[in-house]
Amino acid sequence: MARATPVGTRSSVDLGTGTRQPQLPALSKVVEAFPADGACLVVTGEVGPGTVAYLQVLADALDVSAVITTPGHEQSMAAAAHISDVLVLTPDHPRDLVRTAAEYTGRLTRRASAPVVIQGPGHLLSEEGAGLLAEQGARGAVWSAQCGIPRQTQDPVQLRLPVFTTAGSALDSLVNAPAGYAIAQTLETRLRRDLARSLSDCTVVILGYGERHTAVAAALRVLGAEVSVRDPDPISTCAAVLAGYRVTDRAELLSSADVVIDLYGDLPVDPAALRLLRPETVVLTEGFLLSDPHPDGTFGALTRVEQYEGGTTVCRFEDKPLYLMTGFAPSHVDERIVGRLHDLLCCELYLCIRELASRPHPSGVRQLSPDQCEEIAWIWCETYGRSA
Questions:
Q1: Is residue 228 scored above 50 in pLDDT?
Q2: How many CB atoms lie under 10 A from the CB of residue 329?
Q3: What is the C-alpha separation between 83 and 50, in angstroms, rounded?
Q4: Phi and psi at residue 88, in whole multiples of 5°?
Q5: Domain, as residue range, for 94
Q6: Where are the alpha helices (DSSP H) in 260-301?
Q7: Rounded to whole angstroms, what are the CA distances from 248 to 36, 199, 229, 347?
Q8: What is the CATH number of the domain that holds 217?
């Protein structure tokens, strides 16, 4: 079951803070330069002021049909209600988000002549989620990934749905440095506030050394952490060694870690790896949804015990206590940079939607072409270059 929220009126003010929502001048120019030839967009997941501004610009170019929010996130629900002329649905339980999106997509595809594109978080790309969306006639999905592509999406047969993502695109490297810095600063803040620890006293293991991982590693080193890296790719491992990080056996690294950075979200669903961790190890992950437990209260192989305010969760694996942290705070990065990078990301998301709407694509994960990314970059530079 899902609850429908009455739509609000268009507003440029964040009701939570009283501040004006970020404007997106580059996105407006991209929408004007590359109009969409008809598409229905369904957005799922958490919604903030930046998403509201993004959807308000897109509403002039395509049919923003519905926003399906995550239950329990009051700020998200309040923000979504202020997107004009858009249906807002809230499932009764977080685990129903994908099924609600699929059911609404099915109704929409049966009555609309335009293709239906879904935008949402990575759990939409699970085998079950992508299968449901494909069965209901979705043209494809857009994932605004900030931390890479889940392992299961690498198999097009398993995915069953064409997906465009910003992860790994030609523009991705532009957001890595500030995002990596934000992740490291947020980790330091939460360690001090919640656990009375500091990165300067921690051995940190980073699972992976590509895309955002390199920026996180560099920022952690600046904050005084002892950083080790484990990546199954030999070339990435060489890069980590050349950068001066300790590289050794995965089991050895996990068994000695105080903190594990797991941006893909693999660790919470890997019991063998969790057994290697010492009690009270901290796991920071961007790819795992704490808001979406199973009915028995578990998250993968973990059981939630206590939730701290601000993103730290005390979990238990068998009889071992562990700390799980999710998310990073953009407040640790200059607000002007955050706003401009958000505008850049929104431009890329829009062109991904437009690309899916333009014609059918085979199942599998893909990014915009380098030429398309260059077009976005030129428009973005023309917008912000003179005010740098």
A1: yes
A2: 14
A3: 11
A4: -115, 120
A5: 2-172+335-387
A6: 271-276
A7: 49, 21, 8, 40
A8: 3.40.50.720
DSSP structural state of residue 20: B
Concatenate the DSSP letters of all residues of 31-59 into one string.
HHHS--SS-EEEEES---HHHHHHHHHHT
Residue where the block lists tokens 């085998």 = 127
Q: Any idea how long the chain is?
A: 388
Question: Do 165 and 191 have their domain in common?
Answer: no
Give the angle 297-2-350 at the CA atoms, nearest 5°: 95
For 70-128, the pLDDT digits (tens) are: 776 666 666 666 676 788 888 887 778 888 989 999 999 999 889 999 998 765 666 67
* More confident: 170 or 147: 170
Q: Transcribe 205-254 into DSSP letters.
A: EEE--STHHHHHHHHHHHTT-EEEEE-SSHHHHHHHHHTT-EE--HHHHH
Tokens standing for residue 258: 């105080």
> How many domains in the chain?
2
- In this structure, the answer to whether residues 192 and 324 fall within a common structural domain is yes
Residues with Cβ within 8 Å of 32's Cβ and at least 6 positions away in sequence, in order, are none
Bridge partners, 138 (sequence order): none
Three-state SS at 388: coil
In degrees and rounded to multiples of 5, residue 18 shows phi and psi of 80, 0
Task: Name the token pair of 77.
Answer: 């629900």
pTM: 0.72
pLDDT tens by residue, 155-167? 544 678 898 988 7
Looking at the DSSP bridge assignments, the partners of residue 117 are: 41, 140
Judge whether 163 and 365 are in contact, CB under 8 Å.
yes
Q: φ, ψ for residue 249 (rounded to 5)?
A: -60, 140
Tell whether 313 and 210 lie within a shared domain.
Answer: yes
For residue 76, give Cα distances in angstroms to 122, 141, 178: 18, 21, 24
Token pair, residue 171, equals 């523009």
| Burial class (CB within 10 angstroms; exposed 0-12, middle 13-18, buried 19+) of 244 | exposed
Among residues 286, 302, 331, which one ends one of the domains? 331
Beta bridge partners of 140: 117
Integer Cα distance of 325 and 253 in angstroms: 19
